[in-house]
Amino acid sequence: MDDTSRTPGAHSVHSSPEQSARQSQGISAPLGATLAQGGVNFSLYSRDATGIELLFFDQPDDPKPSHTIVLDPVLNRTYHYWHIFLSGIQPGQIYGIRAHGPFDPSRGLRFDPGKVLLDPYGRAVVVPERYSRVAASQDGGHTSAAMKSVVVDPSAYDWEGDVPLKHPSARTIIYEMHVGGFTRHPNSGVASGKRGTFAGLIEKIPYLQELGITAVELLPVFQFDVQDCPPGKVNYWGYAPVSFFAPHQAYSSRQDPLGPVNEFRDMVKALHRAGIEIILDVVFNHTAEGDHRGPTISFRGLDNNAYYILEHDRSRYANYTGTGNTLNANHPVVRRMIVDSLRYWVQEMHVDGFRFDLASILTRDAAGQVLPNPPVLWDIESDPITAGTKLIAEAWDAAGLYQVGSFIGDSWKEWNGRFRDDVRSFFRAEDGSLARFADRFVGSPDLYGHKQREPEQTVNFVTCHDGFTLNDLVSYDRKHNESNDEGNRDGADDNRSWNCGVEGPTDDPAVERLRNRQVKNFLAVTLLSIGVPMIPMGDEVRRTQHGNNNAYCHDNELSWFDWSLVAKHADVHRFVTLLNQRRLMRTVEHERRRKTLIELIQRANKSWHGVKLGQPDWSSPSHCMVLSVEMKEDRLLVLLIMNAYWEPLEIELPPATHNGQTQWRRWIDTALDSPMDIVPWRSAPPIAGIAYQAQARSVVVLFAD
Fold this sequence. Notes:
Layout: E1 12-13, H1 17-21, E2 23-24, E3 32-36, E4 39-45, E5 51-57, E6 67-70, E7 77-78, E8 81-87, E9 94-100, E10 103-104, E11 109-110, E12 124-126, H2 133-137, E13 148-150, E14 174-177, H3 179-183, H4 198-203, H5 205-211, E15 215-218, H6 259-273, E16 277-282, H7 299-307, H8 332-347, E17 353-356, H9 375-382, E18 390-393, E19 413-415, H10 417-427, H11 434-441, H12 445-448, E20 458-460, H13 470-473, H14 509-528, E21 532-536, H15 565-568, H16 570-583, H17 589-592, H18 597-603, E22 605-609, E23 624-631, E24 636-643, E25 649-652, E26 657-658, E27 661-662, E28 664-669, E29 686-687, E30 691-694, E31 698-704
Parallel strand pairs: 14-15, 14-21, 15-16, 16-17, 17-18, 18-19, 19-20, 20-21
Antiparallel strand pairs: 1-6, 2-8, 3-4, 4-8, 5-6, 5-9, 7-8, 9-13, 10-11, 12-13, 22-23, 23-24, 24-31, 25-30, 26-27, 28-29, 28-31
Helix pairs in contact: 8-9, 10-11, 14-16
């Protein structure tokens, strides 16, 4: 051990009598390190600890603390809360926790006084250069190699009047992105010291504005363990949290202890000024502490039984996440921590919404059983602070629980995995996919109609960070994850992809033209369908991962945004930009009047067609959907043709009269070369005739005023 373990007692180690006199009992609330009256109140929860010490450091990699404060188990404990007030502590002070207690895994107890632990409520984290996950997994001390918490004053920031944007869902376009990967590429144009940081993202806000998105959904930005991955790799995605309150230190260009907090706020403020909301991808289903062989970083060493779902054999962790452990989200203490975290990010960090990774795990109780009314989900939804924020659930877990269309609550939106699967199936011309595709296009009433919810309950996406990029979806029939060093066993095998005739890159112009068309087909459907659309970073310029559908461990050019693609695939970028422009013109009247999806569908003046008017073909071999819709509030008649068939089809047009003449105008035809594949809405050219030839594997949108 590189620091001497001490027996708790009512005294301060390495502190003067004057310092001892200035410390007091403290109070149990609020939890964490809270500045008050010239000092800091520290409070944490541990039911079974026999003693708690606070360790204070001058630098992140100090081999031993400069001061150690031992909490008295009588004076400094209320119920299971350990607390103390210390005067003179300032923001920026680095600290850690040492917890004494029994090490008895058979009872779920894993105290290790050799470990320096993070404060579960710590608002910032410092990571020493020598940080070692291996050391944290072994017996004994690792002080100099341990992550440590930082005292933060949340009020010490000038928001300059910043307030939540509260964009209506009907005009929300989500851009899923990775903070590091967005600007880390050398060709990003961002200075090397700011690449891959919150500050680097700020420099690229004009790009996001031009694209026309209204919200960024950031892959995890809570502090995570980059070493939680196979040897020789790094955890790039960030689904390995060690703190639920601290922004990830490596995403800050400022490496002083308080730098990440304020740089994150700078980013939020800048995005809000640009009219862009911030949604965080949050991981409340597991931590980076892994299974019984994993490291002791925080929760395990403070109250293992409270924070985790354990098996009947209390020495083992339930694994509903596929990561080795599962947070005990419906335990009262963990419930409170989750809600307190969300409140903090809304109140102090001005975040606009949250996407909950593997949200179905939050429905499980301490035995892993699914609860009909999970307390934590109702706590989140009914909390007055989080009310009005966007709440999005990934409504499944890694143990087979799938709740798309049945997730609990009155205001949760859902990642619609059925949309992804059925749209992919349709555009690779699978038999029997047409009816499902049509249902997805109009908001998935088979999934959401029974809830009497708004049309935007569904979040529609074809690709996301997890899986093929859109370019790779049309370029590969099989995953190619060999570079992950797991024998290509990792990643999903069911991708519903189609390589358009050649596996991987090709010089064949016909194949490349077809792929470009398929990319635009997927983007058009995502942005035209009823619901909230989401596109991941780089799909608008055909970013590739060379067939890797599980690039979680690649912090390199395989995962980064390649800015040269903006020029190379300018036609796709333009296509998305014009789609976004028109979507932002959508009416929000149904949202203001709280109309449900079913009401919207039932009251719509719409007709389904096939190649002949009024004769839709819903048979299994059919691969073409034609829908005409009268948009009364916009005074428009719209005709949508989705032809996934491998041959052109002659589509009979409904009458659209203007001064006695048929006046259809063509907005989109993905079979045409740019710039005629999509035109500015007001510049759409008229077309003549009573029929339109929809080319093979194309999307066509016509409208009439």
